[in-house]
Amino acid sequence: MELNALYYLIPSLIMFACGVYGFITRRNMIAMLISLELMLNSVDMNFVVFNRFLFPGQLDGMFFTLFAIAIAAAETALAIAIVVNVYRANNDIDVRDICKMKF
Fold first, then answer.
1. Are 51 and 63 in contact (CB under 8 A)?
2. 28, β-bridge pairs
3. pTM value?
4. According to DSSP H, which parts of 1-103 are helical?
């Protein structure tokens, strides 16, 4: 792998690490969703970089990225619907309050 690939993989690694940290430390559902999207964007960047440097003539990584973006859009729509329903039930979107909905 060339040195140019590192210019894309290192920011991708930093984005993924920030996403994991944000997902673990936040208790707000919107902040957790943003962290999850940050991790997904990091993975999409890796798909494109590995495709570009390992198989330069093919577009497999680009198609995987487009598919992942479509899945992320559907996941975001579903997650926002869940957040709206949780807010209607509790008037708060803190993750710790979701346990109260079980009873």
1. no
2. 94
3. 0.81
4. 3-25, 29-54, 60-90
Contacts of 22 (CB under 8 A, 6+ apart): 31, 32, 34, 35, 38
Amino acid identity at 93:
I
Domains, in order of start, for the chain: 3-102 (1.10.287.3510)
Query: Model confidence over 57-75: pLDDT tens digits?
Result: 888 888 888 999 999 899 9
Structure tokens at 77: 């729509």
Q: Which amino acid is at 25?
A: T
Using the structure block, give the residue that is written with the tokens 């890796």.
Answer: 46
Which tokens hold the place of 40?
């997904």
Measured N-to-C along each axis, helices 29-54 and 3-25 cross at an angle, to the nearest 10 degrees, of 160
